[in-house]
Amino acid sequence: MELSWERITDLLTIIFENSVTQIILGGLIILTLVLVLKRVVRSVLSRSKVMETKESDTVISLINSIINYIGLIGFLFFVLSVFGLNIGSMLAGAGVLGIVIGFGAQSLVQDLLAGVFIVYEKQLQKGDWVIVNSTHEGLVEEIGFRMLKIRAWSGTIISINNGQVQTVENFNKDKMRIIETITTSFYEDPERVTDVLTKACEELNAELHEYLRKDLSQDPIEPFRVIGMASLNDNYRGYSYMIAGLIEDLTFFPTSRAVRGIIAKYLYKYDIKMPEQQVRTRQDNHPSSE
């Protein structure tokens, strides 16, 4: 069976006039535009010298999320138009429906504005380790149009509406101070404990020198040192002492673990007694009834 050019043309016309075909083609075009726009945004912002890498990644995350939502809404409007619905007249004459949608969109607008202010005020950035609302702790994975996504230490993704972010504790703001409190037994000589902790600080400054926060002359701004006795009676257990040092924010967690390891090594080496938990029990002797 030979197919003439006219027959092929008629066949293609029938195919392209089909609603399903139009929806598929429209979806592919919108998807292509979304991907191209996201690629352009990433290319422009990643090469920008105005923003640092983390700042550009954060802005890219927010803009990409907005592009995704615009693409989705555009696709929904296109589908409605394919089925013969006049979007313009629908929006103009929505009436009560428009008011209802308007009230429902309040939270959406709130989330968008909150997300913009979070990025503008640099409360947090992509890749920061944060605690949000004193509850959710983890690594910032994405700052989106509506949602802030945090990956917890366990790997779980936590999604929080931007408008629900009340407090942010950020562990990645240029510098962090490591503060360790050591509690010893009441039977330990305070002068001896201070001497041992001072020796521990000397090793901390030698071993962790590269992680210390430095000034323009590359001298540590605040090296590790014994601050002094923090408490004469720490929860009825013993004397407590405090060690502190200023380090770079990006190395806070591994450096904290290294600090605790070195301090523990010196406490063991010099046989510093730690407080012991004492539990007292009392047994009441009730007279037996005959």
Task: Provide an overview of this structure.
It is found in: Cell membrane. Its main location: membrane. The chain crosses the membrane at residues 20-41, 62-85, 91-120. One of its GO terms (molecular function) is mechanosensitive monoatomic ion channel activity. The protein has helices at residues 5-17, 19-46, 53-82, 87-92, 96-104, 106-120, 190-207, 252-269; strands spanning 129-132, 136-143, 147-151, 157-161, 168-170, 175-184, 225-231, 239-248. It is elongated. The protein has 2 domains: 9-170, no CATH class; 175-269, Alpha-Beta Plaits (2-Layer Sandwich). By secondary structure, it is α+β, with helices and mostly antiparallel strands. It is built from 8 helices and 8 strands, in the order H-H-H-H-H-H-E-E-E-E-E-E-H-E-E-H.
Distance between the termini: 114 Å
Order of strands, widest sheet:
4-3-2-1-5
Mean pLDDT score, rounded?
81
Assign a percent range to the helix content. Answer: 40-55%
What would you call the shape?
elongated
H/E order of the elements? HHHHHHEEEEEEHEEH
How many DSSP-defined strands?
8
Our Rg estimate from Cα atoms comes to: 32 Å
Question: Strand pairing plus helix content: what structural class?
Answer: alpha+beta
Number of domains: 2
The biggest beta sheet is recorded as: 5 strands, antiparallel
Strand content bin: 15-25%
